[in-house]
Structures are given as structure tokens and as C-alpha cells.
Batch of 2 targets.
Target 1
Amino acid sequence: MEITYTNNFKEYKTPENLDPFTIAQQQLRHACELLEYDEQIYNALSEPERLIILKFTMRMDNGRLKTFKAFRCQFNSARGPTKGGIIGHPDENSSLIKALAALMTWKCACVDLPLGGAKGGVICNPKEMSNNELERLARLYIRKLSEFIGPRIDIPAPDVYTTPQIMAWMMDEYEVIKGIKAPSVITGKPLELGGSVGRISATARGGTFCIREAIKETDISLKGAKIAIQGFGNAGSHVAEILQDEFGCKIVAASDTKGGIYNKNGFNVHKAIEHKKTTSTIVGLEGTQQISNEDLFELNCDILIPAALENAIIKRNATNIEAKIIVELANGPTTPAADEILFEKDIIVIPDFLCNAGGVTVSYFEMIQGFYLHRWTAQEVDNLLNRIMTKAYKDTILRANLNETNNRMGAYMISVERVVDAMKLRGWI
Ligand code: GLU
């Protein structure tokens, strides 16, 4: 059967199965096989504990009523309260939300946070909504969800197209409903409302700790390393900044939903960020040539960073990738078939739920600060994040090497084993 999949950049026609939850289950099955778990264990792990599907109607600024569909999936809570972001994107669906909630479960376990995994989303396009509409929608979503979330139950956070301001409205709505102050009900809040320093750049920073370790396995030097980044949102723009300013790398290419830019000698990231602020795209940045999102994957570079949406690296483009390291800041950017190709090509893949775990790790710090009504310094946040990410990276590589498997399966083995151990100790299995 031929499946057509729109990944927001380009329509790919491919016989590959790109359904996100099917992919998540395939990967889990593979991990269970490597761990020699039987079908009963796989069955206990492979479906979410709870999937909430909501529908609500809201009056838009133009006076018309609009009905929205929304989700919250709590995938597995054996290790603790469930945690995960809220997406506000027009293309989401329950399969994607379930897949991302599963990934959050493995992500929290991989970096050993005492948390389970969840994900939520509202099908909408925040780019086409006014601030007032966004606030009403955020509050409505939390009103419908308020009995299912809480600082000791399930803690949402930002994700694709959601912001600290949206988290602030959501926290406020929850507190009004419950009649208490509960800053730990949501993370990724503005600093003024109990957000953590370092949260905004945490996903990117966590990824750079992994890059620093990965590069030691190669003959590339960080200074002057050529970087291509797909996606210039929160993760993509922050990783570009850190790699340029602190590591001395050359950002040679980047892209957003409108297209990509390229300069083989590198471009100035701050100018690109400024350009995007004023024109809402990086395309057209002075001194760069325009390329397509597809071209970006096949460029001559040392490090390729998918930092946008799922299914970016598929069978068709994996063969042509020239980078030596792939840094998955996005969730689910690589399909299983592409994974096999990359493994054969000896490309180092830093798998998503390890690579981008910096975000949820600093979210966890934010929860702790919320419980104690206390603030950590930037130094405290960075040091602990560094320690957690570096350990998780080293454990993953060790596990992959021991089992002669790829890094993704190395990370899966660690995480799934931890979740299964917790389920056994609770007497669930
Ligand atoms: N949405 C982010 C992720 O996919 C962060 C989740 C969180 O902070 O809870 O990891």
C-alpha cells in the first residue's frame, strides 16, 4: 500500500509505513526482543494507560464558533507522575500523540527521572490565531483536563508551537479551578511565574552535551565543524547559537517551514535569528543561498541536526546523508528503515529520546523548585543537566556496544528495562 504523508515541508510518496505509533511499537518490539522479554511484557508496555480525547467549541474573535479536537495521552506511570508537552499543530492526530507519549516514557527513564511519560495536543494553528484566542483555547483545554492532571499526577509543558506564555495561562487556569497555588502543575513557565533558568535553551543544551561526547569518537574537531540544522524553532535556533558561540562550530545550513539557507563558509546565527524575527523566516538571509529542506539533508557537513518534526530522515534520503553525526533534537525524526541505513553507513546517531531529554530534565528541575518555592542558579541547572546528560549518553553507547546494536536500541534497552522493573516492583506484571 502506498502511503502519502505530509510532514509539513514536503509531500513524500513512499511505500514506507510512516504512522508514528506503528513506528513506536515496532521499536518497542525490537527492544523487547533484545531484552528477551516475551509477548506478555510487550503487551503490558505497548498501549497507553489512558488516552483522553476532548472536543470543545469556542467563539473566535470574528464572532464565529469553532470546534476543536484535543488529546492527552498518559502512556506509562510506573516510574512516577506522567510528564510531557502539549502540541498546538494543525497536523496532529491520536497516533502521533500516543507515539510521543511513549517516547516521553522512554525519555524520562533514559535520563533516570522519577517520572512517567505523557503528551497532549490541540489540533489548531497558533500561527493563525490572535493572542486572545490562544489564551481562551489554552484555558478551555485545561478546564477540560483539570481532573486528570496535577503536580503529582501528570505535568504538561511546552512542545511544538506552544510557549511559556501559554504555560502561564494554563497554570493560572488550573490554580483558579483548584483554589490553590500549584506552580509544579506545569513546566516551561516564564521565569516570573516560577519557570527555571535555562529551561528555554535546555533541549538544545542537553543535545550539545551529547555532541561534545560523540565527537570524541570521531576525527572531527568541534572548532570549525560544519553543522546543518533542519528546523529553526526553539531547539534549532538555540542549538545553533550554542554551537557557534560556545563551541566555535560553523553553521552552514538551516531551514524552517518556508525553506532553507546555505553558505559553505557558515553564516552568523544572531543575524539569522534577527532576520527570522523581522520576516518570520530565515530564508533570504543576506550572504546565503536558498536551498530546499530536502537539499539540507544531503549537504556536505559534519553534523546534521533534525530539529523539526517526525519522519524527516526516511529510507529515500538516508542513503544520501554525508554527515558523520546525526543529532536528533526533534522527536521521532528517523524511521526504522532509515535507521538501518545509517547504522550500515557507520553514522553516529544520537537518538531522540536521549538527545532531546535536556528539556524534560530541566522541566523536572522546575517542578522541584516549584514544590520548594525556591530558585536554582544557572550554574546549578547547567551542572546538574551536564551530569545527567553525560551519564545517559555514556550508558547508552555502552549498552549499544555490549549488545552490538544501534544507539537507539541501546537507549531503548536501558529505558524499557527500567520501566519494566518499576512495573514488576509495583506488582503490575
Ligand atoms: N516537549 C518536550 C519533550 O518532548 C519537553 C517535555 C517536558 O518538559 O515535560 O521532551
Target 2
Amino acid sequence: MRVLVSGGAGYIGSHTVVQLVAAGHEVLVVDSFANAKPAVVGRLETLTGAAIPVHAFDLTDHEKTERLFAQEPIDAVVHFAGLKAVGESVQRPLDYYENNLESTFSLVRAMRRHGCGLLVFSSSATVYGDHAPVPYVEDYEPLSASSPYGRTKVMIEQVLRDVAHIDEGLRVALLRYFNPVGAHPSGTIGEDPQGVPNNLMPFVAQVAVGRRERLEVFGGDYPTADGTCERDYIHVEDLAAGHVAALSWIATHDRRVSTWNLGGGRGTSVLQLVAAFERASGRTIPYAIVGRRAGDLPAFWADPTLAREELGWQTTRTVEEMCADTWRWQRANPQGYPD
Ligand code: UD1
């Protein structure tokens, strides 16, 4: 298929581009480069051996989006593009609602006008809110989220369900990611957060490489085995494979909307992750346990049964591999991608 990857220069998008090409798809990317570096594109072409045409614009621009679909035959869209920093979304709610919703409206309108009926959407485990029982199962309701970022995911899921309800030509996959970490085993593409990383793994990696002095562990008094929060970390390579599997499933089945958790089904604590990273890197990660971060849940992980049964997909990479691959990327690219 000819697949448009929105946000294809970003962290998860870039890894998915590699696997889509490996699966035989022809890929084109649309990315605003608001939170990604153009240098990633050359690396993708080296890794895939394919030309990856890139359209550099923001999908909130309806005219440019329409023009892209008018010019290019597109069979399917994998939609990653969006703003994604939880803390920033609290400070800039209008930017988050406007950007994430408007880009999706623009994209789906263009898809409908041009007969493109396959859409894979990047959702998040954040839609399970604060009260869902662990492990999380896909049919849990009501969905909610504790930040404007998370609420854009809840809203977009709902918009896509409503549109699919009246459009018999549309097949939508809503993929709920748990905690993506790791990097391509080549060490040439990986996560490159701008500024101070919000998420645990990139922060740990920057401490290991000497960019930051020490990690602050947010809370040591949670009701977990070692007192630190537990999360379901998933290797970005497993996550990318989940997108390829989901796309091929919706292309061959009649269900209009499918929701799948993409997680491993196990929790790993902050301190367990730090210890695994020390083993993988051979570096010591200095840390201090500080107060809890507002909005953090003690522990959650996926029930990955549905994706296994329907997609034949499951995670295969261990926490050790997640750390080893993150470290290979970070060591080879201590400052991330060049400007
Ligand atoms: C966060 C977001 C989630 C989003 C996901 C994207 C929040 C509340 N949730 O998930 O909505 O979809 O990122 O990847 O922000 N930690 C530290 N020190 C740090 C950073 C993190 O101790 O410097 C801890 C956190 O308290 C948490 C764990 O590490 O217990 C994982 O944190 P993080 O990587 O930010 O992921 P989530 O909070 O699970």
C-alpha cells in the first residue's frame, strides 16, 4: 500500500516508517518539524534503502492537506502528528486542543474527499483515566484523562468513532500505547526530546551520557514493591510492529473501529528501570528520590490479550534490550540529531 505517515520524522513515527517499508509498503511522510529534526530523513533513507518523500507542513493547514491528497495517491494513513507534552498541555491548553483536533479534522476530511479509507491513530493509555482497574482492557468506559494532552486523545478517539459510524468506507484502528522506549538497534534513530526530557527513559539516558547530573525519582512512597511507580515499558520496535499488524488487519477486515492496547502486560518500577539501564550501559545513574509528580498513577499496565488474539502481535523485547538499544542511540548521538 501507499501509506502516508503523519509525524513520520518523530520518535515513534520514524521507527514505524522503517518497518512499513520493510513490510513492502511505499511510505510518504508529512511532518511540520515543530518537534523533529530534518536529519532523521536521511537516516531513514539509509536504513530502508528507499526514497522517503517528505512534505513539510502542518496538517492544521487544510489547503495544503487537501493539495497533498489531490496530488498523491494514498491508500492509508498512520497518524502520529500532534503535540504530546503533558505539562506543557496544562500551560497551553488551547494550543493542544487546536493543534491536535484541527489536524485530525483536516486529515480525515481530505481522506474522505479522496476515498482514502484506512486510518491508524496514535492514542495512549492515558485515556483509561484515574479509575480503570489494572490491567487495562480496551472495552473499559468511561474514558477520561487528567491533562489537556490526554483529553485530546479521548476526544479524537470519539470523533473517529463518530465519523466511522456514518462512513461505511472508513476503517479505523485506535492504538493505545503504554510507555514507548528504546531505539532502532542500529543506534541511528531514536528519541530526541527538545529541552529537559519529561519522560523517564530519555532522562536516564541523558544522565548516563553526562548531559545531566542526576535523576530525580518522583515519589518513593507509592504502594508498590519498591515504593516507585510501575509502568508497562514497550520497545519502540515492538510498538512499530504493532502499527504494521494493525494496518494489515484493518485492510482485510470489515469492522469499522478497532481498539488495541499496545503494551507488554507487565509493570517495571522506576528503580528497576534505572538498575537495568546501569547494567546495559555500565554507567552509574546517580538519583535522588524526591516528591511525587502531580497526576502520576502508582502502577498500570496493559492487558495485551486482544492484540495477541486478533493481530497475532505481542511484545518480544525485554527491558534489558530497551535499555541497551536506548544506550546505543544515546552514546552515538549524545546531543540527539544534528541541527
Ligand atoms: C507520561 C504521560 C502520559 C503520556 C506518556 C508519553 C504523565 C502524567 N503522563 O506517562 O500521558 O502518554 O508520558 O510517553 O506525564 N519519572 C521520574 N523522574 C523523571 C521522569 C519520570 O521518576 O524525571 C517517573 C514518573 O513519575 C513515572 C515514571 O517515571 O512514575 C514514568 O514516567 P514517564 O516516562 O513520564 O511516563 P508516564 O508518566 O507514565
